[in-house]
């Protein structure tokens, strides 16, 4: 507002000229001059500008107000700025020097990172410093657990404290001095002494994969979301073969943010800073085979034929990953809005909400059904794409009439983020659920590895939740699913160990003994949850445990258990294909 008046103090300008100024000088990526007209209209009503001859003129009243207000400009993305980096301590410099392509490949995956404390405002660095200093000169396992619990109120379980300790080891900050004690590494000592965040960042980059490399991923013309980063992380993990979890990627981003190497633009997007670019240029980074990481842009999963005589086909991009990639790409394709409308319908259909695309003016973009039978609901879709960031100044009036036409009571407003005023208006409407395409893409990707039921997916489309709350609600379900998988693994492992013990006959354990062993491994779960997991593993479809009254024993190895659970997915796929073929045949015969 005031900055527009300041621009007019040197002479009148057209709305298009003010729009160009907003884009170039203030990084306001508006697609039309509507936001400019809103401001000049308000200024005209208050008498601070006058509109005539197709230009905006500053009045004397406007000049008086301008003289009394403070102006400002946002920090610019200075892509050409080179920052001079501080000298690196010798012990850390030697770690970096050893990172040839072989050394980069040998880094740990860093797949289970957890840093206690607050992520924002440098809290990550404070937490790492406290824990590192606790290991100077050395610390026992038990004392480390107590140190975590005493310093971080939200990390009170033994399992959480141990995960924090494992994280420090993975980041190259502590190392073992015996089977029961730890000490800070030479690189960690150098960082603690210098207090320089870049020394910590260099140490971490030398220890784990996909850390400094994240800076290169973010420094693209089209910045990836955290969901895209999660998917692409597999390219940088040659020893792992599958992507990192979203939480582990977020831990990396929080640490990079705390070191001043990235800046957060929204809930799911970050930008590499000038310091981050200079820092990345100083590092050797792993160079992946990028061909496998890009999803195709059309409507089908990409298929490559190998050179074998049989002509076997290999699907290199999973269906969920492809749908998510198309969704994210369509969200930025403002020149073709129907792409996003269709992509949203496809994505929701993949999540178990079938529907159809409608499109056209004066109605809904599409609609889907949530649930089955009498309890199902129709959800209307309003999709907004934007090539330049959050969607801005799009009218929401008329949506209620559109819902009535398709029998919907809820509208899903989907787009790559929304500017603050528009977001507040939509969030305050009890019939509108605002969904960021980045979050929707993440849900689609994770549905293959950590599938949620339709009930668990309800937070994605629940209008009572604010847009910023959806991700947290869904992540609690993902964490619960991950915990359940770890619990099932632990149960099979415990009963396998009992079966292999030469002093035990039969390998039977009762529920009390099983729960006691789980507690020694850091699992604090109630009896009903343990019994539910045991019953699942004893079911005829899995059949890797046997039950006799309230005692259990294992009849298969951990590896075999994993094979059987995975086979259920293949069986369902085969059954689905057979059903579809049979139904197609019946329809053809009827015709």
Automatic annotation (TrEMBL):
Record region (Disordered): 290-315
Name the UniProt record assigns to this protein: Uncharacterized protein
Native organism: Streptomyces liliiviolaceus
Organism lineage string: Bacteria, Bacillati, Actinomycetota, Actinomycetes, Kitasatosporales
């Amino acid at each position: 507002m005031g900055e527009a008046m300041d621009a007019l103090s040197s002479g009148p300008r057209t709305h298009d000229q003010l729009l160009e100024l907003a884009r170039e000088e203030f990084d306001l990526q508006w697609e039309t001059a509507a936001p400019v007209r809103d401001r000049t209209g308000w200024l005209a009503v208050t008498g601070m500008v006058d509109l005539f001859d197709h230009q905006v003129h500053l009045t004397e009243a406007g000049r008086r107000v301008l003289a009394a207000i403070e102006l400002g400009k946002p920090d610019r993305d200075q892509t050409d700025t080179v920052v001079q980096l501080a000298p690196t301590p010798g012990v850390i410099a030697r770690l970096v020097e050893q990172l040839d392509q072989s050394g980069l490949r040998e880094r740990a995956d860093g797949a289970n990172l957890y840093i206690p404390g607050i992520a924002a405002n440098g809290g990550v660095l404070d937490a790492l410093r406290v824990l590192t200093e606790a290991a100077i000169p050395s610390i026992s396992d038990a004392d480390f657990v107590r140190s975590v619990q005493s310093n971080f109120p939200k990390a009170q379980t033994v399992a959480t404290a141990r995960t924090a300790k494992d994280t420090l080891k993975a980041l190259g900050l502590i190392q073992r001095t015996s089977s029961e004690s730890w000490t800070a590494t030479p690189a960690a000592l150098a960082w603690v002494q210098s207090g320089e965040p870049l020394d910590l960042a260099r140490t971490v980059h030398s220890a784990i994969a996909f850390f400094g490399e994240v800076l290169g991923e973010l420094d693209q013309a089209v910045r990836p979301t955290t969901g895209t980063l999660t998917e692409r992380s597999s390219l940088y993990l040659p020893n792992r073969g599958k992507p990192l979890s979203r939480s582990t990627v977020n831990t990396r981003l929080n640490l990079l943010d705390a070191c001043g190497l990235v800046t957060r633009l929204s809930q799911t997007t970050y930008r590499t800073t000038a310091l981050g670019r200079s820092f990345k240029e100083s590092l050797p980074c792993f160079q992946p085979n990028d061909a496998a990481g890009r999803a195709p842009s059309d409507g089908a999963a990409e298929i490559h034929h190998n050179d074998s005589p049989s002509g076997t086909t290999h699907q290199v991009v999973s269906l969920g990953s492809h749908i998510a990639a198309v969704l994210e790409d369509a969200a930025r394709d403002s020149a073709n809005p129907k792409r996003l409308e269709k992509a949203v319908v496809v994505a929701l259909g993949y999540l178990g909400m079938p529907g159809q695309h409608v499109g056209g003016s004066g109605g809904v973009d599409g609609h889907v059904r949530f649930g089955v039978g009498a309890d199902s609901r129709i959800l209307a879709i309003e999709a907004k794409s934007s090539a330049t960031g959050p969607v801005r100044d799009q009218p929401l009036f008329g949506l209620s009439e559109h819902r009535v036409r398709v029998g919907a009571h809820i509208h899903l407003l989907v787009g790559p983020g929304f500017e603050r005023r528009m977001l507040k208006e939509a969030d305050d409407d009890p019939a509108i659920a605002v969904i960021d395409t980045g979050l929707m893409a993440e849900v689609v990707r994770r549905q293959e590895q950590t599938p949620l039921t339709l009930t668990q997916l309800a937070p994605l489309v629940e209008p009572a939740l604010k847009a910023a709350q959806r991700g947290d609600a869904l992540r609690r379900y993902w964490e619960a699913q991950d915990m359940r998988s770890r619990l099932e693994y632990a149960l099979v492992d415990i009963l396998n160990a009992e079966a292999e013990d030469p002093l035990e006959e039969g390998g039977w354990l009762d529920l009390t003994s099983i729960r006691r062993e789980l507690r020694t491994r850091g699992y604090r779960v109630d009896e009903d949850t343990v019994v539910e997991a045991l019953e699942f593993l004893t079911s005829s479809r899995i059949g890797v445990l046997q039950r006799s009254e309230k005692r259990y024993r294992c009849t298969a190895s951990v590896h075999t258990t994993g094979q059987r659970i995975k086979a259920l997915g293949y069986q369902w796929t085969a059954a689905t294909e057979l059903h579809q073929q049979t139904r197609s045949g019946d329809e053809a015969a009827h015709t």
